[in-house]
Amino acid sequence: MSQSLMAKEALQAPEQIRRQLYENQNTVKDIVARVKMFAPKMVYLIGRGSSDHAGVYAKYLIETELGIPVCAAAPSVSTLFGKTLQLEHALVICISQSGKSPDILHQVKQAKQTGALCLALVNDKSSPLAKLVDQVLPLKAGPEKAVAATKSFLCTLSAIASLVAQWADSKELTFGLQSLPAQLEEVVSQAPKLGFNDLKQVKHCVVLGRGFGYAIGRELALKLKEVCGIHAEAFSSAEFLHGPITLVANKLTLLNIEIEDETFEHHKKQIDEVVRRGGQVLTLNINKQNQSAENIYKRFIPLAIMLRFYLDIEGIAQQMGLNPDEPVGLNKVTQTL
User: Fold this and answer.
1) Dihedral sign, CA of 53, 211, 93, 309?
2) For the chain, how big is the Rg over CA atoms in Å?
């Protein structure tokens, strides 16, 4: 099989994150100094698609490290319903690869008019979004041509982590970031967690995670749809027990995102219940036999799982006779209202 753009770009993620963390050090310090002076009462996240999924990771990290409430924007409230939200005490974080979508720009303009402090995490520093906001934290993912976002998503998570590490003065996050690129490079050399035989008969599946596991679950589900044409939906494993678990009776395939953090024991009990009811469970986790990967800081396990997953499903898609670089009906930049 020839190597797709998707695979090439995913493989670039460790080095791009290394570069990002080094080159953004002073930028992050300047942003955090302004954020602390502004003293936001809440954080308001704006994003679509993979950028919106990265925002779920941001929500968990900001709330657990800083105790500041975080909510996600509903773009149509401002663009289609015509309502202006009062965000004068909010830090608005807008996440975008291209920085061009009209709904994103409209919301930022409204937020600035009501007195919010607006920060963009964007890959294109020359974009309209970068010119509009108060502060820019560049993703530095480099050009990404494949329709399925890989390195830009991982670079967004590392950028969020670097911001929160400085803001919370977290030694654990700071030290964890220092070793993250090397640990991700080792993930690349590991054996696949998913293979063609695991998914060749799968038409529908559910992705289950808890906390930071759920934060990447939505991105996993999106990529299964985009790249492999598999209908997939993500749930918190706790939420799955409130009704959707009845689907297990139909011999449903479930992807279990296993992260050994504060949620591990509770999540394991919920997965055990799924197995007891006959669910067919495939587990995604880090390779504990690898010393470096085993020492990865718990908040960055989601990045390691995502990188391995990207590489795995790229290969599976090719074995299915699909082109991972050209998902049917999709474009790289989607503009919505």
Assistant:
1) negative
2) 19
CA atoms of 229 and 99, how far apart (whole Å): 27
Do 206 and 179 contact (CB within 8 A), yes or no? Answer: no
Phi, psi angles (nearest 5°) of residue 110 = -65, -40
Query: Could you give the dihedral angle defined by the CA atoms of residues 232, 237, 241 and 246, in that order, rounded to the nearest 10 degrees?
Result: 30
pLDDT of residue 4: 92
Residue tagged 């799924």 (tokens): 274
pTM assigned to the model? 0.93
pLDDT number for residue 290: 57
For residue 25, the model assigns a pLDDT of 97
Between β-strands 204-209 and 280-284, what pairing exists: parallel, antiparallel or unpaired? unpaired
Intervals of the chain under pLDDT 50: 332
Supply the angle between the helices 301-319 and 151-168 in degrees, to the nearest 10.
Answer: 180
